[in-house]
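Attaching the record inline, Q. Sequence:
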Amino acid sequence: MAQFASFRDFYPYYLGEHSDVRCRRLHFAGSWVVIAALVATVATGHLSWLWLALVGGYGFAWVGHFVFEKNRPATFRHPVWSLMGDWVMFWQILKGRVTL
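Structure, as predicted:
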């Protein structure tokens, strides 16, 4: 298992684990599901929407890894940095720095 001294060191590894564009697309879609579920939770006051955030966020990402990347999600080894990486990659996709 790779060890990293900082998120700055981890992020290039994270991007390498998402080299297949279909995996990145699924991550991006899953992030939108998380955002929508959080908005629905706030708008309705129903905490049940949080299940959609978990299932949508992880479900889309894990399909991308197991079906297209053929690797284990970084979440299993580096859960906090992986979550941070998801949102940095999402933002970079929005800004056009990471391609879909």
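Helices lie at 7-16, 21-44, 49-69, 79-94. Residues 18-94 form one domain.

More tomorrow.
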